[in-house]
Amino acid sequence: MMTESIEEINKQFKTGSVFRAEDVPISCAPSAKEFEPTLHGVMRMNGLIIKSLQEISGRGANAVTFRAGKKFGHETAKYFRKIEDVEEALRELSYILHGQYTFELWKPADKEDYVVTENGETFIFLVFHDCIVRQTLRCNGMEQGGPLCQTLYGYVVGAIEEITGRRAKLEIVHTGPNACLKKLILK
Known about the structure:
- InterPro entries: NO_sig/Golgi_transp_ligand-bd.
- The chain has helices at 6-13, 32-57, 60-77, 86-97, 132-139, 147-164, and strands at residues 101-106, 116-118, 121-131, 168-174, 180-186.
- It is an alpha+beta fold.
- It has a single domain, classed as 2-Layer Sandwich (Muramoyl-pentapeptide Carboxypeptidase, domain 2), CATH 3.30.1380.20.
- Strands 1, 2, 3, 4 and 5 form a five-stranded antiparallel beta sheet that branches.
- The longest helix is centred in the first third of the chain and has 26 residues, at 32-57.
- Residues 12-17 have low confidence and may be disordered.
């Protein structure tokens, strides 16, 4: 039973009735280790949901999950500050998502800048390191690049579109057991 009133909680978080993620305490009780079995259960459940979605809708599952991720990215990023500089926006997004998805900007050795324009296309490479999606797929014995990955791609695209005001698209360049390389195409 909750002993604090809504007013007391709002005073504690200094937000009135608006939730701000930065006001959530960093320390957590019980410890994260105690949540591990629950997390693994949720990962298994998500894997089974995705497997079922694939069985029911086939290749359409990718479109459904991408759309859901994109909508979630747009909704979440409404609360972020607007940034025109794509590099800065990506760094801030990675910082905010740390612990769920860790990614960094990457450039080939022959490029001077992260943002590249070639053949009329502007893009930037992202390396995803720690990724709850990859771990969920691994836990369920599923391949990368399918509907669950599409959810993440949609989320990143939606968030970047909302933050920068530019249209975007995310493509797989490489998937691997410890990292994935994506190409964020800006329009």
